[in-house]
Amino acid sequence: MATKASENERADAIRWIQDQMVDYGLTMEELEAAGCFDPPPPPAPVRYRNAQGMSWDGQGEMPDWLRRAVNAGQSVEFFRVG
Q1: Quick check: is 42 in a domain?
Q2: How many CA atoms lie within 13 A of 74 on its CB side?
Q3: Which helix (H) or strand (E) holds 63?
Q4: What end-to-end distance do the CA atoms of the chain give, in Å?
Q5: Which pLDDT score is estimated for 82?
Q6: For the chain, how many structural domains are there in total?
Q7: Which domain holds residue 61?
Q8: Contact by Cβ (8 Å): 15, 8
Q9: How far is it, in rounded angstroms, from Cα 1 to Cα 68?
């Protein structure tokens, strides 16, 4: 069950969204057509992981933990999962 504070925050968020819809003249149909209610895509599978459990999916910029290891001479393939 939600706490009183979270219920108030939720009500504030709903009012803010309603205000934004009025300010921009948006309808529920437009938001739905824009994909606002589609489920989020599944997370990308983990491709690299270190002993501390830090992981990276191989997309985007290499994370600091992996960049430091590679700069220290470790092969990126050492951290490949599966």
Answers
A1: no
A2: 14
A3: none
A4: 40
A5: 81
A6: 2
A7: 48-79
A8: no
A9: 43
